[in-house]
Design goal:
The N and C termini lie far apart (39 Å). The chain has a five-stranded mixed β-sheet. Strands 3-5 form a two-stranded parallel sheet. Strand 6 and strand 7 form a beta hairpin. It has one domain: Collagenase (Catalytic Domain), CATH 3.40.390. The protein is of the alpha/beta class. 31% of the residues lie in helices and 22% in strands. Helix 1 runs parallel beside helix 3 and helix 3 crosses helix 4.
C-alpha cells in the first residue's frame, strides 16, 4: 500500500479517534499522542484507534482529550521492552505524549504475571513515556494516561485505575477527573507536553 493511502487511512483513523460523533462534548484540552508502533500493533492499527477512543471516553467528560497525531516505527531492538528500562534509551518529544507499543513488556520475576503497561514518572528533557503491550485490553492506554496525569491506583475493581485487568464496565470518579484537569492545566502552562487546544 502506498504512503498516500496509509496517510489517508491514518487521517480517517484520527478523526474517528478524536470525534466519534457530531454531538461530542467541546474539548478544553487536546493533547497530541506520538505513537511508536511495534510489528503487532502496526499490523492492527484499529486496536490502537480503539485505545485512543477509550481514553477519550474516560477523560473527555472531564475536559481532557487526546489526538493520535504522529506515528513512529519502533526499532527492532525495542520490540521487547523491560518495564524498568531507562528513559535515556527512548526517543522522546517533550511537547507530545510518547506512547511506545512493543510486542511485549517484560517484568521482573517478583511481579508475578505479565505487565500490560507502564508509565515512567521520571523525566528526560521534560518528557514522560508510556508503554503499553500490543493487543491488550482497550482500557490499558487510558489507565496509563491516568498515571501520566497524576492518578494513583484505586481499590475499586470497577475503577479505571484498579491495578489489575478486570472484565466489565470501568469509570473514574469526579475527584479523579478534577485531578486530571488540574494536571492538564499545569502541562499547558509548562508546554511539556503542549496541548494542541486549550481554553
Amino acid at each position: 500500500m502506498s504512503r498516500a493511502a496509509w496517510a489517508w487511512i491514518g487521517a480517517i483513523s484520527l478523526s474517528l479517534a478524536l470525534a466519534p460523533g457530531a454531538a461530542a462534548e467541546p474539548t478544553a484540552y487536546l493533547f497530541p499522542l506520538r505513537v511508536h508502533l511495534g510489528p503487532r500493533a502496526e499490523a492492527n492499527r484499529g486496536w490502537m484507534v480503539a485505545q485512543v477512543q477509550r481514553a477519550n471516553d474516560y477523560f473527555g467528560p472531564h475536559q481532557v482529550r487526546f489526538l493520535w497525531r504522529d506515528t513512529v516505527r519502533l526499532p527492532a531492538s525495542m520490540r521487547t521492552i523491560h518495564h524498568a528500562a531507562s528513559s535515556r534509551s527512548f526517543d522522546l518529544d517533550a511537547r507530545a505524549i510518547d506512547v511506545f507499543v512493543p510486542d511485549e513488556i517484560v517484568g521482573d520475576e517478583e511481579m508475578h504475571g505479565s505487565v500490560l503497561g507502564v508509565t515512567d514518572p521520571r523525566r528526560q528533557r521534560g518528557a514522560h513515556r508510556i508503554c503499553i503491550e500490543a493487543e491488550e485490553p482497550d482500557d490499558v492506554l487510558a489507565h496509563e494516561l491516568g498515571h501520566y496525569f497524576g492518578l494513583g491506583h484505586h481499590i475499586d475493581a470497577h475503577n479505571l485505575m484498579y491495578p489489575h485487568s478486570t472484565p466489565g464496565t470501568h469509570a473514574i470518579t469526579d475527584a479523579q477527573g478534577a485531578q486530571v484537569l488540574r494536571r492538564a492545566a499545569g502541562f499547558a502552562l509548562s508546554g511539556r507536553p503542549a496541548p494542541l487546544q486549550a481554553p
